[in-house]
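Render this sequence as a predicted structure.
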Amino acid sequence: MRALLLSFLIVGAGGAAGAMARFGLTMATIRVSNVVPVGTLISNLLGCFIMGMVVQMLARVAWFADGGVITDHNRLLFGVGFCGAFTTLSALVLEISTMMQRDQLAIAFGYLVVTLLGGFGLFVAGSSAVRLFTQAQGA
């Protein structure tokens, strides 16, 4: 029971950090574009890159060794908590819906495509970056 409570607290801490980072990014980029919500786009793309890195680190057995970078707590903190709150499907859907209501169908579709394909591409890039790094380190 104690381990489960600790896991909830770790996810909560990561989630709080991810939500605040996403909000900060949104506030920092709010004047960049009146058409495309740049903050949400960046947070979703960057979150996919980070998640790709986390997943690849988890796949590397050497990273699990005592004192390694990826422990179960780090997975919960960064993968579940931070990335879960930093990326946001609900905001993406709301923003696309708003664009559609404004008859900005081409922009809405482009935003969706860039988010999905860009997110997948950056997930692969993050995973590949860790794989290349670990191969260079001989892990």
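Summary. The mean pLDDT is 90. The radius of gyration is 17 Å.
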